[in-house]
Amino acid sequence: MSVRIKKLMGFGRFIWTLIMQPVLLHEEYIAIGIDPNLSVWKLWKKPGEDQPMRRRFLKFSLIFLFGFLPCIIFFLAWISKNVGLNIDYLKLAIFMAFSQVAVLIFSLAKGQAFALAKGLIFILTFLRIPIYLLEILWQRLLQFTPRHLALSPVLHHELSILPQPFLSKAILQAASENPSLAHKMIKACARSHRQQQIGKRALFQLQVCELEILLHQQAWQQIKDLQGRWLPGLGSDEPLLPFSKMAAFFLAADLSETDRNRLKNLQEAKETLQSLENNLRQEKGYRAQILLRETLPTWQQTLKPLLQTAEEQAAKSLTNPFFAGNPLDPKQGGEVFRGRESLVGTLEEVLSDHHNSSSLVLLGPRRSGKTSLLKMLPNKLPGVICIFYDLQASPIDTPESFFQALAREAQTQAIYHFQVKLPPLPQGPPLQALARWLELLEDLPNKERVLFCIDEFEVLERTFPDAPQELHKLMGLLRATIQHRKNVKLLISGTTTFDRLGEMWDDYFINIQELRMTWLTREETVDLLNRPVPEFPPETIPPSLAETIYTLTGGQPFLSQFLGLELVNLLNRQSRRAATEEDLEWVIGHKLFVNHGGYFRQALKPLSKEARSALTQLARGSAPQFTGPLRKELNSWLMLTSEDRAAVPLLGRWLLEQG
């Protein structure tokens, strides 16, 4: 049996807690298994290990009600008779006593009504004005003897009539000398209705102080997680969450390998800090005042020298304009998007020809630039509402969720990119709703043309594993869209041709026009590496080195961007301005092959054993025997040139290194 239960077992403890701390008594009995939703009769009769505890509680209640309480009433009546006290005070005292025992019994019999009973107790606290004045004096005296703060009234009395003016300072004083006691005082404040705000404010001040200590220690990870003795963690909606976000930027700045990235992260931290300050100035609560007065100036003083140093160091380094890994889009990497003019021209022709009922499929290996092209279309086709939807990135598992997600994305992107409001998806069965929605898009008020760009279309079949009929109906609807709509067109993209996917795809998309991705040309690759943006120094990656990179990558977009990115990072780390052939070899061996083996495995995964063998032979300098099917396979994955050479020699080189 726990110490807490042993304390509750005594009648004296029961009486004191009932009169002075009824909320705590309620919580304690719930904690030991007394169900407040049970009636008194069920509490007595219900079997179980805790039955003796429940019966003892009920006995104490009866003794108080029919024994202890009448004695108190008789004693008060005797005093009133002998000293001439007003009988009204006696009535109020009797009412107070009965109300307190009612709180306990009523809360245990009907737990839902405990809040009402608790409210009655707080009304009765107005009878405790003399006690309240003594509490204030006592709390003030305790501040001069910190070792006695455990005697603070809030720890022993929940029914104070008004907030105690010296309690907040007492909690802060206890936190520095006895943190566990401060925790108890804050919890006690939460139980005492009149002291709740004092406890919350004291806790917030402790959190702010701890945050400032961690800031001086530059303990970014702790601040990011909001972990500490007083900090709340990340599990709740707290006003300290912006500091977690800023700490994440500080941490990223510390871990940055380049001065430019460090500066970028610190600038993000500054923007977050400014946004927080603007928001706080519009608030009026004590939290906003504490943060504005104490916390924000400290963060600003910490950030200022770090940002100044980062700016000075970044000014001496090269701007890195290259992007590798994520698809390019108009906001991120749009300036280094190269080529694809012929593909965009074909799209323009199809969309502008109302007699052309074709839609299109964009095919190419992974990392060939398909998604980047789709995301750049709003800039490349300004007169068309281009809606990008990535099936692989969308958590859908039913036809209805697919249509709803597609409609939401369409509405969001149309407003964001084109300031056009599209109609919502109508109500009704999924396929009927989609058909009606496409009709509404066909007849937009200004006859805008809409192009749906659906990426990773192969995933569509896996979206309907248990509803093949729904998939066939959807395919029929898509075919009708392709054939009969002038203003709504479909562009799907993926890696697999229809003949590999199965007969169903060929049947439904018989009237679709294929567009094939290719690698960048020699001129496009050299221009990308030598002058990615106008302000990029051309001597950083000289034309001769750019030519070498093209020879190794064949113009493969990801590899070209990655090598450019890592070359500039290497130069910045070594405070140099021009890359060499030796730098390129170091990047290939220590960065590309070590950190991006997944790309090579993914690129080679769809190839047959014969195709891999042919690439290995080409890497060794020998000439494999190409059959018609082998040549077709390698060409379909952009692995072979028209001269039967390896289109991307780095793939063969990686194969050789893997043995």
Write out key terms for the chains shown.
31 helices, single chain, disordered N terminus, five-stranded parallel beta sheet, 659 residues, mainly alpha, elongated
The 3D shape can be described as elongated
Work out the strand percent.
Answer: under 5%
Quaternary status: single chain
Named CATH architecture of the largest domain: 3-Layer(aba) Sandwich
Helix fraction, binned, reads 55-70%
Uncertain runs: 1-7, 106-127
CATH superfamily of the largest domain: P-loop containing nucleotide triphosphate hydrolases
Q: Which structural class matches the secondary elements?
A: mainly alpha
Q: How many strand segments?
A: 5
Strand order of the largest sheet: 2-3-4-1-5
Q: Strand count, sense and closure of the main sheet?
A: 5 strands, parallel
Task: Please count the helical segments.
Answer: 31
Q: How many domains in all?
A: 6
What is the CATH level 1 assignment of the largest domain?
Alpha Beta
C-alpha termini separation: 67 Å
Could you characterize the architecture of this molecule?
- The protein has 659 residues and is mostly helical.
- The chain folds into 6 domains: 3-109, no CATH class; 128-203, no CATH class; 218-315; 340-516, 3-Layer(aba) Sandwich (Rossmann fold); 520-590; 596-659, no CATH class.
- It is 63% helix and 5% strand.
- A 5-stranded parallel beta sheet has the order 2-3-4-1-5.
- The longest helix is centred in the first third of the chain and has 33 residues, at 51-83.
- Mean pLDDT is 79; it is low at 1-7 and 106-127.
